[in-house]
Amino acid sequence: MKKPKLIWLNVAVFVITFLFAAIAVPYRAITHGFDSAEIIMALLCFIYCGMSITAGYHRLWSHKTYQAHWSLRIIYALGGAFALQNSILHWSSDHRVHHKHVDNNDVDPYSAKRGFWYSHIGWMLREYQAHRYTNYENVRDLQKDPIVMWQHKHYLLLTISLNFGIPLLFGLWHGDVISSLLLVGFLRLVLSHHTTFFINSLAHIWGKQTYTEKNTARDNGFLAFLTFGEGYHNFHHIFENDYRNGIRWWQFDPTKWLIKSCEYLGLTYKLRKSPEDKIEKARLSMILKRSQQKLSEHPDAEQLLERLQHEYDALINKLNAYYDIKKTLIANKRDKLIADVERSELVAQYKELKQRLIDQQQSWQFFIEKLA
């Protein structure tokens, strides 16, 4: 089968920037060295680019997980152009197709089932889906955002100005233009590219399927560290409308922290979260499925499977009861229907059901650990 035509501009950008980062930067480091100001500036620009993609392109525009003030949207739009990952409109269109048709080799723009190279960078090197390049029907909502359309219209000018202008201006101010162009320009850009690309490639290969195995997406804490929280990809693919990727307090998700912090400043609002009970049920369903698979070859499989199902059903029943009363309690607090919520009978029921759920969770965990 004949391969699609190469996109020579993309090939040139990726090859040239990589060669500068892999050869010129180490050579400059050995022969001249980089000072702390240059390293810090490169790191700050890397963070700015990365979080403009994660908080802006991805969670704000592609998935509409929250809304943002115009000033923050401009910051994201400039950072996205600085990251050189196409316009908001184009990036979001591709990403929505990816989610709708994930792992479908004929439709998913960067299907992981076509291999690491293809999903990481190969899909951008050839005209695999040229028929879609100007089709933005799935992002009509974004076409109503004047900032999105302004960036899309002036994308080439913005990306050239930022990628050369910022390193050049910093170099002139700091007194070393060559080091700035190499570190703040080339190395920062290559790192920004490939850490983002890891989410399309490694995050569909390496990690745990915590919430679903209906697609190839994985949860990986190490990738989350490299990608500002995007590594909890299995969660994201089943709960894509949640502004968080790392939902536990200990999970590294600075994008979530940025969005939440901006809410306190009035820069973000209408943050969307998936219901806790749905998240927990998805996680428990995966544990049940894996445990059933493990027990299927056991000599006492029938008896153990029956016990496993009994424990699971009991846990789900208590989970439903707990979250039902929790929702009622929150609604009553919000609507001020209870004069003294803390002393109400509803709170007593809530505490009792919470303890029952904890006891059942412990029973479930004990049984699962016995099977390990």
Automatic annotation (TrEMBL):
It is an enzyme of class 1 (oxidoreductase). It is found in: Membrane. Signal peptide: none annotated. Residues 42-269 form the Fatty acid desaturase domain. GO terms for molecular function: oxidoreductase activity. It holds the Pfam family FA_desaturase. The chain crosses the membrane at residues 6-27, 39-58, 155-174. It is a multi-pass membrane protein. InterPro entries: Acyl-CoA_DS, FA_desaturase_dom. Its EC number is 1.14.19.-. It comes from the Bacteria. Keywords: Coiled coil, Fatty acid biosynthesis, Fatty acid metabolism, Iron, Lipid biosynthesis, Lipid metabolism, Membrane, Oxidoreductase, Transmembrane, Transmembrane helix. Residues 298-363 form a coiled coil. Its main location: membrane. Belongs to the fatty acid desaturase type 2 family. This is Fatty acid desaturase. It comes from Thalassotalea castellviae.
